[in-house]
Amino acid sequence: MSEFDQYLAPPNLWFSELHKNEVGLTFRIKDILYSGHSKYQRIMVVDTYELGKVLILYGSIMFTEKDEYFYHEMLAHVGMFAHPNPERVLIIGGGDGGTLREVCKHPTVKHVDLVDIDSEVVRISREFFPNIASSFDDPRVTVHFEDGARFVKETDNRYDVVFVDSSDPVGPATSIFSHEFYEAIKAHLTENGLMVAQSESPFYHSQFITNLFADLKRVFPYVKMYLSWMPAYPSGMWSYAFASLGTDHLPKRSPENLNGKLRFYNPELHKAAFVLPNFVREMVE
Ligand code: SPD
To answer: What is the mean pLDDT of residues 23-38?
Structure first.
C-alpha cells in the first residue's frame, strides 16, 4: 500500500470551496451531519478530520470549529473596544451566533439586536455548534428574522456599534452590500457610533474591495481597513471595514473586565491590524 492509498480508501469524501471557480480550499470529510435547503440557501454541516465541524452556507465556508475564533474575535472586539462605552449593538447577519457570543462578553452592553434573514441558520447553529451559538438566551439579546437592509431602514433604534457579519456578496447577502444600506446604518448610529463589516479577501476580491471602500468613503467621514488571518477563508488573508462618524479605530478600553476569555484578540494586535501591505493600501486609498 503506497502512502497515497489512504486518499483512495473509503470513506473518501472531500469538500472543495472554489474561489472564482479557478482555485479553492479542500478538506476531507469524516461525516455529513446535516445537508438541507432553507427558504434562502443550501446549508451543510460536516465533520472533518482536521478542522472540526464546519458550517457551509450557499457553498461557502462560514467557519470551522478550529478557526472560528480568529474571525469572530477580530470582527467583534476591534469595533467594541474602539467605542468608549458600547451599550447598544446591532448585528446584521451572524445567525450562527459567533459574533453575538463575543459582543455579549462586554459588560457595557445593555441591548443587542441580531437580524438574520434565515432562521434555519440559528436553529442549525444551536443544534450543531452550541459553543458558538451560546448567547442566544442572554436576556440582553433580541433576534429578528428579517432582511437586514429592510430592518436598518425601518427601525427607530440607534446603535453605538453595528456589525455586518454577512456571507459573501452572493445569494441572500446581496442586499447588504450597497450604498443605501450604509447610508441607513449611518442614520442609525449614536454620536460616537461606528460600524464594522467583513469585507472579503484582498488577494482574490480586489475590485469588490475597491468599490466597497469607495462607497463607504462617500457615506462615512472616517473609514479604515484592517486585516487578519482566517485559514478557512479564500487565501487566509481576510479584511474588515471600520467606518465611523469620527471615532478613530484605536482601542479605548482594556480587555481586562471582559466576561469570558479571548483566544485571539489583544490590544497590540488591534492596532497592528490596521497596518496594510502596499498592494492592499492601493485598493482602498
Ligand atoms: N467567505 C466566507 C465569508 C463569510 C463571512 N461571514 C461568516 C459568518 C460567521 N459568523
So the answer is: 95
